[in-house]
User: Which sequence fits this backbone?
């Protein structure tokens, strides 16, 4: 088997790669924003906010990604009579909402892993809710958030292949175009060779995502060690007034 395609065939796949990467980046942004919002809402003291966030999490985790994609791309425009919006936007919203459902639970679990003394210290210092989360809680939760978020981002990368079903020319769609037209090509291509190339491209993209998150993990870990002298979130700290004092002097 000759696994090397022609330049024109790689150019066709490159068009799909660009769409796939674009969808991944925008879906990641939407997913991170939704994860933070609903992850924090899951820990709210207000029952209504907790209930609303729980409904969101269970809804978007429980719906199949392909059904969610068709719902955003076709059902919502018909239901609200808004015409046919950009399918790229609809695909980004569908993938981002799906990521947000899983990411919200990751954020919630990471925040709960921060020692209770740190929360008590922020209360003792009379910090506002925003400054508690922004300057104390999230920086300590970040080392816990990053590894599962890396896995989740790779899952979203693989989920982008579904957008070919709604007519977007991503990598999978581009490969299918080549497969359909392979008999009319000057240099015919076999189906196994074509999809081995597609497999390799997806693998390389996944490795780039994995490497990026490992790099961020090392950066965050080194900064955390410099600030606190610990290599990870220490869940063995005592709680109570003593922990609050220790958190105020060391964790802040």
Assistant:
């Amino acid at each position: 088997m000759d696994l090397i395609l022609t330049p024109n065939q790689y150019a066709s796949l490159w068009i799909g790669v660009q769409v796939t990467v674009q969808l991944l980046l925008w879906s990641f942004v939407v997913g991170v924003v939704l994860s933070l919002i609903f992850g924090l809402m899951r820990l709210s003291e207000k029952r209504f906010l907790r209930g609303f966030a729980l409904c969101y999490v269970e809804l978007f985790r429980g719906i199949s990604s392909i059904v969610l994609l068709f719902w955003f791309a076709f059902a919502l425009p018909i239901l609200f009579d808004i015409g046919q919006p950009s399918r790229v936007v609809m695909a980004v919203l569908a993938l981002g909402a799906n990521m947000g459902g899983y990411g919200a639970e990751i954020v919630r679990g990471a925040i709960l892993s921060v020692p209770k003394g740190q929360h008590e210290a922020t209360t003792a210092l009379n910090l506002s809710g925003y400054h508690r989360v922004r300057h104390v809680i999230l920086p300590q939760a970040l080392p816990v958030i990053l590894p599962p978020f890396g896995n989740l981002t790779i899952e979203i990368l693989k989920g982008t292949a579904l957008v070919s079903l709604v007519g977007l020319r991503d990598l999978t769609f581009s490969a299918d175009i080549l497969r359909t037209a392979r008999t009319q090509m000057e240099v015919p291509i076999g189906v196994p060779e074509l999809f081995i190339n597609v497999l390799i491209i997806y693998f390389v993209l996944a490795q780039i995502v994995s490497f990026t998150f490992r790099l961020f993990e090392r950066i965050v870990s080194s900064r955390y060690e410099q600030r606190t002298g610990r290599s990870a979130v220490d869940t063995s700290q005592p709680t109570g007034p003593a922990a609050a004092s220790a958190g105020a002097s060391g964790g802040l």
User: Anything to note?
Assistant: Residues 59 and 101 are 8 Å apart (CA to CA).
